[in-house]
Amino acid sequence: MIQASGVVICLGYIVGLLFTAVPFGGVWVLVLGIVGAVFLRRHRITSAKLPQKTEKHSAKTNALFARQTNPKPIIWIVAGLVGLFASLYFQLRVPQPGKNDISLFVPPGNNNNQEQLVIVRGEVASIPRLTRSQRGQFWLQVKRLDEVKKESNSAGMSKGATGKLYVTVPLLQSTGLSPGEQVAITGVLYKPKAASNPGSFDFQKFLRQEGAFAGLIGKQINILEEEHKWGWWKIGERIVRSQVRWLGIPEGPLVSAMVLGSKAVDLPYEIRDLFVQAGLAHALAASGFQTSLILGVVLGLTRRTRRVTQFVLGSFALIIFLSLTGFQAAVLRAVIMGFAALIGLALKRKVMQLGSLLLAATLLLVFNPLWIWDLGFQLSFLATLGLIVTVPPLTQRLNWLPSAIASLIAVPLAATIWTLPVQLHTFGVVPTYSILLNIISTPLISIISIGGIISAIPALILPDAGGVFAAVLHYPTDWLIKLVEFFSKLPGNSVAVGTISIWQMLAIYGLIILVWLMPWWQQRWWFASVIAVALVLIPVWHSASSLFKITVLAADTEPVLVIQNQGRVTLINSGDEGTGRYTIIPFLQQQGVNQIDWAIALHFQGNDSNGWLEVLQRLPIKVFYDYSATPDNILTSQAIQKELLKSKGVYQPLSLGQTVNTGSTVVQLINDQLPILQMQIQNQSWLLVGNLKRDELRQILKNKALVHPQVLWCATESLKDLVLALEPQIAIASNADLDPKIFSQLSQSQTKLFFTGRDGAIQWTPKGEFEAFIQATENRASVL
């Protein structure tokens, strides 16, 4: 009875946190608790009246009913109150900027490329890491802020400031920095931006989760106090250096990441991306697997000692492991369950794994309720739940195989079943060969993890000794990398199905829970599987067969358009490398696009259009039309053609005036100097105008050589001239950095203005109006 009551109360707390996504969510949880109590009370009264036959039968039945009616109805009311408290507690723990937070001192002009230099003084709070842009990044606890005088470039007025700051500096500036050092950083403050495009990274949300509300682009660092404080990071750094010295790169960082977790190790991004794309991201995250290995080794070495000794040494090992990994949510969950196992061992009692998992999740969410929306926490909890409740029945169904092989299949399959719905809701991509790769790679991962842990122990005392042990892992690590590379290069290594809605995700989890708890569904698991697959694929098929949508992505100063027409996709322009990687690819994956039918390349920014190479590495392009094939970017054109050959795509160079017909869209480049691109999309006339030569643009307007489009895209500098001359219904520009007088003048016209830098991506469908992504996101959030 106590256990059942505790389960209900713990679930009430977790559900209360989940309901923070709904207005008045805590009140709804309380209402559910009251309804549950009333229902159970009536059921209990009705059940008590049923057995009326014999005393023997009555005693047995009453005992049965007593077991069935536990926990008591009052427990459900208590659970509802706990859920209400959880929702209020969550709101109290949401980070808010303090009175003197550094984010309050960000000059407004810094968001418009008018850099105001400042000097920020504070304490380094983390080990510097390498970013994708090859800069050093670390967290800074702010203490003071000095303004820099523009005339003398010296420190001006000083202000007291607090808060946490996301700092990036040139790589050499961050080399040698360590937590605890007092520094003064000269740079530019900025406020993080929310996601501007569907599927893109929300930097603002990420910083808020970390308790930070501003960033600093550092240019120079001056160390004020070289106070090297002791910390667990020194031990972790010693282990990493020992393993990297003897294994080299990338094998050394990979082994360290598999022992300490990727958050504690500066793992090369190409290796990190490779494992994530192949569906082996969990191998780089310190969690239950490493915890089980550590406990297994400790308990195996101390099996002949007293239980108290095993408990003490096991606890000591878990604490050291937790300290080295940096108190990550997944590790905390695994360590709490490890402690539960040790307590059960010491007390000679069997520990209920499911109860331990629920208790661990509740304790972690009491410690930090914001983790309820942390993807790493969600995946770790769900994967562990799958291992507890789904591996045993899967192993039984595979009893015709040797037990070792059955376990190799059941473990990754169970984890995938429970985590895939969340991954589809977040990313919309299925790693096709993930389960097979997990089965094949598990022996290698086990060998590397055990070897990494063994080599880490002597590295704490003598780095060279630890390195000798680590050197043995060279071949297994190299084989693992090559295995992952092989699977990542297979055709169809990942399939984008598009992100599913929260209701689809909840329905799929409902089916999984029914198969877990209900015997009728357990016998018909295949039927539940068919329904789950249909819940994902039917909306995808319907969207692909009926959807027509135009999306103007927020991509700095170049127009990037995606036209989706009943499953066929046209991409116009790609921007630079960052646009291709962080804007176009995430958007297409979110939309469930696995192939681009037509690509049209222009020369709007005068760059080499390196974004096309990023896109081609992830998605095949059937036909590539190149308006920008000039001697200036011949190398890029050759690289694009080489990538197209791999996927059997067609490369078609175009000259001025040639038209491209993609069914729903007719495209023609009518000027290659500005440039000017004219498009007819269904019944709409579009005009894309560059601004490389403004004098020529004015001459064209004077000669009235341009048609009056319904939709206009242009650079902000040309917006006034073009809107007043062409009078489009819709005008889209890259940023809203306009003179207030010009903005007021444009607002009086009949043209509706959008700015991708302010409004994010702009989308249109035949049944609706043009819609700004940021505004639409805010409206949907308010509804939730």
From TrEMBL:
KW Hydrolase (keyword) present: no
Subcellular location: Cell membrane
Membrane protein topology class: Multi-pass membrane protein
Stretches that traverse the bilayer: 6-39, 74-92, 280-301, 308-324, 330-347, 354-371, 401-420, 432-450, 495-518, 525-544
DUF4131 domain sequence ranges: 26-222
This protein's UniProt keywords: Cell membrane, Membrane, Transmembrane, Transmembrane helix
Listed InterPro entries: ComEC_N, Competence_DNA_uptake, DUF4131, RibonucZ/Hydroxyglut_hydro
Pfam families, per database record: Competence, DUF4131
Main location per the UniProt record: membrane
Domain ComEC/Rec2-related protein per the UniProt entry, residue ranges: 259-521
Alphabetical list of PANTHER family matching this protein: DNA INTERNALIZATION/COMPETENCE PROTEIN COMEC/REC2 (PTHR30619), RECOMBINATION PROTEIN 2 (PTHR30619:SF1)
Designated name of the protein: ComEC/Rec2 family competence protein
